[in-house]
Amino acid sequence: MYARKSSKSLPLNRSKVIEFTRGDDLLRAVIYCRVSTKEQVKNLSLDTQQRTCKELCARQGWAVDRIFVEQGESAKTADRTELKNLLAYCREHKGRIHCVVVYAVNRFARDQYDHSILRLQLQRLGVTLRSATEPIDDSSTGKLMEGIVAAFAQFDNDVRSERTVQGMKARLEKGGWTFPAPLGYLARRDGNGKKTLVPDPERAPFVTHAFELFASGLYNVNETLAIVGKMGLRTRAGKTLTPQSFGALLRKPVYAGQMVIPKWNIRSVGDFPSLVRSETFSRVQAVLAGRHPSVSARLRSNPDFPLRHFVQCGKCARALTASWSRGRSKRYAYYRCQNRHCRGVNTRREEVERRFVEFLEQLKPKPEYLRLFSEIIVDVWKEKQTQVVAVHDALLQRLADLKKHKQLLVDAFVYKRALDQHTYQDEFDRLNEEITLAEMEAEDARLDQLDVEAAVEFAQYVLLNAARIWSESSSEQRQRLQKLIFPAGVLFAEGVYRTSTTSLIFFELEEIRDQKERLVALPGIEPGFED
Predict the structure, then answer these.
(1) pTM
(2) CA gap 515, 512 in Å, rounded
(3) What are the extents of the domains in the chain?
(4) What residue ranges in 272-367 does DSSP mark as E strands?
């Protein structure tokens, strides 16, 4: 054991003991205490450790330079801020500190590996380790005892870890949740005192809505996140979710009440309420995997060939494919029948698309449906407004909450004197920033509310100018317009388009031609109808 410098009982690694600079000849020690649970903090375990360590220092004549106390932290190094502070302190005071005193070796490191590397780092700084309850020192016997004690500490930790895992497995198999509560849930105790999950009243509705939006296939991950983010979905720390974390959220079976732990081969039904219906969760997984019909359509789309997979061969009724062919000096785009044995269509892209525009120009809205068109648009508008209004209302509520927090802050500073000027100003500025952003988002959401009259007018314009709009639109917009007008697709053969099913908004093309043939020019008007 260490004693005064004049003693002959100095350790064998005497060269590592550095002369003092403060004029006294006492060896200086720092004490490190740790408990891993809040209950241990309350039951005076820390006081017991400190008192025992101080008694050892007093018996050995060591001056206690500083005490580092870890309260309610796990044995993981990442969680032990005071251990990090201790190592930094020994480094910054190298030559001044010669010993670290702990109550027991298992309070210092969680396993043999951690113990060894920590011991080596201390040795590099000229610092040794002593236990107040175990006979360890720098002698060969002391080092052997230290290794044995560290091994038993790891053994005890491993046994407790195995028991914990077994208990978790048993609980999971019975439907109980043993991990931290995922976003949208809160951890609570059931009637038997066992850990379970309950919906978070603040975040659960947003999580449910996110699944429903994404399951529709109309929104991708970023778009869905933007919508629920505007409505107020935040992490428990008050931050917005990243696309990566939101994508991971959509893949968690726990939201459908399913317990799926692949590494333990566990699949069970949770004993807590689900936030998402099983069918909705399955659709979400299909969209994420690209199996949803709308997703498949997007994956098959090609901006170079908007009519691919939409137009069908007029001879065999197989959908047309399309590709580029290399000529002598440049490349050429062709639409072809997917059936290799059919020669019905093998036509240049320009010709196929020009004929399709001519085909659209022949369409004419049915008068009876045009009269009812306003009612149809109003119905669509009402459906759209449900979503827009929900976002706007959520933003207004968030804005009201922020203003309430701001008022509470002012009250705490002005009337209760509970805050200093610096803390108040920082929080005041932060709240003002959030209020500004919330006001902007609320105004954006208000502007998103459609003008129904303008929507009807625009829709009528689309119906009357389908050919022009198709020609001027992007590839994705063209495909949407095609599907609207021709829900069953169109047939193409020998330069002619035809269809068996047209949207009810339009006359059948045959009806237009029949009417044209029956019309007679008025007397005195010579021009006939153009072919």
Answers:
(1) 0.41
(2) 5
(3) 14-158, 198-299, 367-464
(4) 311-313, 320-326, 331-337, 346-348
